[in-house]
Amino acid sequence: MVSVRVLNVLFTLSSFIGLALSIYAFIVEQAAAKDANYKAMCDINEFISCSTVFKSEYATGFGLASKFLGKDSFFNKPNSLFGIAFYSLIIVLAQFNSKSFAVLNLLFSTFSVWLSVYLAYLLVFVIRSLCIICAGTYVVNIINFASSYYKFKKLSEPPAKVQKSKKKKA
Q1: Do residues 107 and 151 lie in contact, with contact meaning Cβ atoms separated by under 8 Å?
Q2: Which residues in the chain show pLDDT less than 70?
Q3: Average model confidence (pLDDT) for the chain?
Q4: Helix 79-93 vs helix 4-34: crossing angle, to nearest 10
Q5: pTM for the complete prediction?
Q6: Which domains are delineated in the chain?
Q7: For a designed S-S bond to 102, which of 6, 54, 78, 152 qualifies (C-beta 3.0 to 4.6 A apart)?
Q8: Could you give phi then psi for residue 16, rounded to 5 degrees?
Q9: What are the distances in angstroms from CA 73 to CA 54, 64, 65?
Q10: How far apart are CA 45 and CA 41, in angstroms?
Q11: Superkingdom of the source (predicted)?
């Protein structure tokens, strides 16, 4: 089985990719808001266009904040800002090798996968556009979930019998 150290590296690396994607999404959102003719690198055609997605009503507050909390709500911010905060937080949490922090990362990663499913549904069935940046964050979230699950599992294992027998002899 993979070591906790390798899982930490995988989790941290994928989270940095998620952070970079979120920062890029924020830059594209801001540029598209200022210039209606702005064309991002991720805008390939009418169907594959992150700008289309980032301009949609679902790009802020996950499409839920304004409906339930109002347009002036603190939570009605660009999704990319939530991504920046989220990935920054879990990068820090991943550096601790305790079962408590592993549980937190597992909970956050599980939530992010469910949120990815919701947002992917919106992309395909509501917005009807493909966002490469969004899809990238979904992949990152799946990798993070798997890494956090195996890290939690590894930290929950009892110490190996070989190590116990060595300690008894000493």
Answers
A1: no
A2: 1, 160-170
A3: 89
A4: 160
A5: 0.88
A6: 4-169 (1.20.1440.130)
A7: 152
A8: -65, -35
A9: 19, 11, 7
A10: 11
A11: Eukaryota
